[in-house]
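Progress against Task 2.4 (sequence-to-structure conversion) is shown through the following example record, which the project officer requested during the mid-term review.
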Amino acid sequence: MNKHHKALCAVATFYLILMNQQYVLAEGDQVSNVKVVAMCIAPVFGFFFVPYFSKAVGWGIVYLIWLFMSMYLRFDTPRLETLGYNAMFIGVFMVFYNMVQAGAFTKEFFQKLMRYFLWAYIICLIVQQIVSISLRTEMPWINLYYLPGENITKVPSLSLEPSHSARIMAAIFYGFLKTSELIKGEPVTLKDLFGEYRKLAVAFLYVMISMYSGTAIFMLVLLSFYFFQRRQLFYVIPLFITAFLFLPDVDYDPVQRAVVTSEATLTGDSEEVISADGSAAARVAPVLNAFKMDFSDIKTWLGHGTDAARNAGHLTQENTIWTDRGIICYLIGLLLVFSCAIKPFLSLATLIFVCGLGGSLINVYYVWGMLMTFTCITYFVQSSEQETL
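Structure tokens generated for the chain above:
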């Protein structure tokens, strides 16, 4: 590995880690100035390391141009800071995509990175739980910047809140599974999971269950689909039948929240979801509401303007995944995601993106961090397919 490649790997690793965590002591619990500065200088790294016009650059530019046009041609109160913040996330994604395509990571390095990153989340969460239970005091230096209420194990680990950690860890664990599969030459089985990878798997299950988050339980359900392959049907089908029969009777609030939210979502009625779980509804309801908008209204296609959904209220039928920017901008964003970060379309990554992130490109660090993880997975899968041709 020459110096150029080492530097490329180091910069790509830095951005992948930065966008998949938030250390409150250094970054605060709102918009992170550290991330803002890092995203602003990302194009400089792109210019020196990977000055290529790729698919990510092309679709990213189209997305930003359309966003600029929709903000300035349709509305009286455009917000330059919002457009600028969008441009930062898009810009860092473009640069990271180009770095991955330039070979910043090998499968073996990425697998180790995912493993170590998971252990960092796990160890941090367990330490936070010990402090929360025994000392009942905040410790910002371990990212415990608030005291849990009655649920004293509900701590944030390396992100801003348990639901963020649940999503990020699910994507990281999926990255670990896929790279392990590519290295082994065959899918990871449940036997492998609780054999060769036993310590990591048990620790991962513990923190996902103990962080007291309905999102974490839902992410575990989504991850279980990785094992739903023909050779694993003998093991997986009985597990799904057992879960279907007994989960509704499990006396654990996160499990019950996940169950009732899933049942309400299947009705297709956003009001049912809101009644079932207001927290989950903030992510699920906008997806359900999106298909009930007036498609003859030009604003449905061009958007109602910045903050329109927030001003209408998070738990209202006016709040949808494309209220602010419109359907056209949303579809351009999807083209960016499914041409660069997630392939094939019918994959577990798509399920996590749609069900875990609401299928939207909001200006939140973990959304873009997870897309970066999926970008690496897609690159390795495509590279392995080319090697077998």
